[in-house]
Amino acid sequence: MRITIKALEKLFSKPSNDKVIADARESVGAKGAMNNRKDNPVEWALLLYQLDDAREHLESLINDMADDEEFCEIDYDIYLGHIFEHLNRAWNGRAQSAEQMDKFHEENSKLPTDIPTFNK
Fold first, then answer.
1. Shortest CA distance to 46 belongs to which of 38, 55, 37?
2. Angle (nearest 5°) at CA 3 between 7 and 15
3. Which of 12, 33, 93, 119 yields a CA-CA distance of 20 to 30 A from 20?
């Protein structure tokens, strides 16, 4: 299965986050410009941190599902919610300055509203 950028935007963006992202893009002076390692080394490291942390939690989820006989839907919801928060921060912060990532941390972390398990 191939995931496109449009599919990821649909999955992770919310109207409130769209404004945050638009404001961030405007502030870095390039519409749609994602931070990069050369020009934004601090922001790049912050994005990598979020993705690495999401990976670690995903590995823990997989291990716990395989090893814990009492693993249940509540455990699954908690793990996925936490993983999504990291992915959302990476996605929503991709064009933000380090200061904006900090300022909009809570907004950038919000879970998608179109996934039923997060709206219980």
1. 37
2. 20
3. 119
Cα(first)–Cα(last) distance of the chain, in Å? Answer: 28
86 closest CA partner among 74, 97, 72, 101: 101
Report in angstroms the alpha-carbon separations of 87 from 8, 25, 56, 80: 10, 19, 12, 10
Could you give the CA distance from residue 98 to residue 10 in angstroms, rounded to a whole number? 24
Report how many helices (DSSP H) and strands (DSSP E) the chain contains, helices first.
Answer: 6, 0
Q: Rounded to two decimals, what is the model's pTM?
A: 0.69
